[in-house]
Design a protein that fits this description.
It is a single chain. This protein has 611 residues and is of the alpha+beta class. It is built from eleven helices and 26 strands. Strands 10, 11, 12, 13, 14, 15, 16, 17, 18 and 19 form a ten-stranded mixed beta sheet that branches. A five-stranded mixed beta sheet has the order 3-7-6-5-4, with helices on one face. Strands 23-22-25-26 form a four-stranded antiparallel beta sheet, with no helix packed on it. Helix 4 packs across helix 5, helix 4 crosses helix 6 and helix 5 crosses helix 6.
């Protein structure tokens, strides 16, 4: 019966194509000899005969090849099988098994469908029966009573091959097999992915040289431009708020040359990069800050979110070009307030930020002299300003920019910027002396007040050591003061911290003595590189040095910041005192060390004289 289901299923598609025809019902209880649709019966019988015929070399004990194909409807989660019959069905099955396939087909045609002899022969011959007439005679050979009983049984529901029973499969086994199938599929996918990765060719190496702007997809039209009033409507006051300025912001040829030079500098281009700054081309279109003519040069200033790139070309010869690249990440309202556009012997011209309302210049060595105004163009370019630290090495003047922000940014906010050779001038700040007792730490403030200007007048000459060092800001912290013996007057200890755009900071400890004069440079005590001292992450410091009094006596001096509770001096001289300063009489040029006890209970070793 399972074979019968499979044969009928294979015949159904061809039967559906004949829309004007219908499949006859095999169940007829009356004696009406209506002629069924012969084409459908022929298709079914052809499948039966083909199944029964084995290939010439196929073993007789094996089922024919078609038996290997699915012969029942497949439903996931169900098991389908024919309905079992009784003793009569079993007896009929055995009787029919003794007949040939053609004789069994003739039996069905004559007994079940009631076809006459000639019609049955025609159907069998159309289906490919080799001896159709003999098959019909064989089926008629049954005894009259046996054939009648067989016909009655064949048309009953007990022997109906179209009826199937369905039972669920083993639920536990089915779940186990489903999981195994999923695991097998995942394993197959992973194996296939690994094989593809092994067989895939190696990717082409990334070129180390930058592509030109045209090759990398960057065009002058792609440059980003900030609106003119963005700085007045944003909480982020940095280079992203700069609008494009200059007389050549629409010169696409100039902008394209600047982009191409940044992407792949030519052999005639001088490339200058700040410390720890990459000259690699920008990953996306940078922001245009300026494009114009300054001091016989065409200048383009670009910003890619992390770096400034200044392109310069000689107006007399485009072959003479220069590219300066410097880091400016995390710039703010002060460190993004000015950029150097050009340099010559008379000084540097700066492009001033749009939020700066007043531009002035002052000399750090003359704290009692008021700042003077500087002229700027409509595009924000200043008149030449002498470098704060010149290359000649003298210390007669230390001019700096004094800028004041618009009242929309901060009321009465003025600050100092020192030009030390980099694209961005250095922001100067000041931290005053601590109060009495153990007060909370004071924060750096702008170096524009009287005390800050006096402190910086003693530190200004040391700025020459910071020329072209990628310094971002310098803070002068007066961390201790003491009265010197032998009428030496008042002394102030200062920690000058230099912070770079890269992050690490260097510290220089100095001592200024009032008796040495108001304009005398501070005495260097010690220098520490790459340290957290004198920052918000290193709020304590202890230092010591050798000092000779006006009477010619030698002393070991030491001082600590606000949290120091006691000092200990050891070496050629020994002393211990409770307090933040100590002065001990010592032999000529003594060698000693100093340590301190902090209010937190920790001990701290001091930084000592460089000599």
């Amino acid at each position: 019966m399972t074979v019968a289901h499979w044969v009928v299923q294979r015949a159904l598609p061809s039967a559906r194509l004949a829309r004007a025809r219908s499949v006859p019902s095999p169940r007829r209880s009356d004696n009406h000899h209506a002629r069924p649709e012969e084409s459908y019966l022929v298709t079914v019988l052809r499948g039966v005969f083909a199944y029964d015929r084995r290939p010439a070399l196929w073993p007789a004990r094996l089922a024919p090849p078609r038996a290997l194909l699915p012969r029942l409807p497949i439903v996931l989660g169900l098991r389908l099988f024919p309905r079992p019959g009784g003793a009569e069905a079993l007896s009929l099955t055995r009787a029919l098994a003794g007949l040939s396939a053609e004789a069994r087909a003739a039996f069905v045609l004559c007994s079940v469908h009631g076809l006459p002899h000639d019609a049955a022969v025609d159907v069998l011959e159309a289906a490919g029966a080799e001896d159709a007439d003999g098959a019909v005679r064989d089926c008629r050979a049954f005894a009259a009573d046996e054939v009648g009983a067989a016909r009655t049984l064949a048309v009953s529901e007990e022997f109906d091959a179209c009826v199937l029973q369905a039972t669920p499969t083993d639920l536990l086994r089915r779940r186990h097999r489903t999981r195994l199938a999923l695991v097998a599929c995942l394993a197959g996918l992973l194996t296939g992915a690994l094989l593809l990765a092994q067989l895939a060719p190696d990717p082409a190496p990334v070129p180390t040289t930058a592509l030109p702007a045209a090759a990398s997809g960057l065009r002058a039209a792609d440059l980003t431009r900030a609106p003119a009033g963005r700085w007045d409507n944003t909480a982020r006051i940095d280079f992203t708020a700069w609008p494009p300025r200059g007389s050549r912001v629409e010169d696409e040829q100039l902008l394209s040359r600047a982009l191409s030079t940044w992407s792949r500098p030519g052999s005639g281009t001088r490339v200058v990069t700040a410390a720890a700054t990459s000259a690699a081309p920008p990953l996306s279109a940078p922001q245009l800050l300026y494009a114009g003519e300054v001091d016989a040069h065409a200048v383009v200033l670009l910003y890619d979110g992390q770096r400034l790139a200044r392109y310069q070309e000689d107006l007399r010869s485009q072959a003479r070009t220069r590219l300066d690249v410097a880091r400016v990440d995390d710039a703010d309202v002060t460190t993004a307030a000015a950029v150097r556009l050009s340099s010559k012997s008379s000084g540097a011209r700066y492009l001033i930020a749009p939020w700066v309302a007043e531009v002035q210049s002052r000399d750090l060595l003359r704290p009692d002299v008021l700042a003077t105004a500087l002229d700027t163009t409509e595009d924000g370019v200043s008149e030449p300003v002498p470098f704060t630290a010149g290359s000649e090495g003298g210390c007669d003047s230390r001019p700096v920019l004094q800028l004041r922000s618009s009242a929309r940014i901060a009321e009465r906010h003025a600050f100092l910027l020192a030009g030390l050779g980099d694209l961005s001038p250095v922001h100067l700040t000041f931290t005053p002396l601590p109060g009495h007792g153990t007060p909370p730490p004071r924060q750096p403030r702008e170096a524009t007040g009287p005390a800050a200007l006096v402190a910086w007048s003693h530190q200004a000459c040391a700025l020459s050591d910071l020329r072209d060092t990628d310094t971002r800001a310098v803070n002068a912290w007066d961390f201790a003061e003491q009265d010197l013996p032998d009428g030496g007057g008042r002394a102030v200890w200062t920690c000058m911290r230099e912070s770079s755009w890269r992050g690490p900071g260097h510290v220089a400890v100095t001592l200024r003595v009032a008796a040495e004069g108001a304009k005398a440079p501070a005495r260097p005590v010690s220098r520490v590189r790459s340290t957290a001292l004198c920052s918000r992450f290193g709020q304590h410091i202890v230092a010591g040095t050798v000092w000779r009094s006006p009477r010619g006596n030698w002393y070991a001096l030491a001082a600590g910041s606000r949290a120091v509770t006691s000092l200990t001096v050891s070496g050629d001289v020994t002393a211990k005192t409770s307090g933040r300063t100590v002065a001990v009489r010592a032999p000529k040029r003594p060698r000693f060390e100093v340590s301190a006890q902090l209010a937190t209970g920790d001990r701290m070793q001091g930084v000592m004289d460089e000599k």
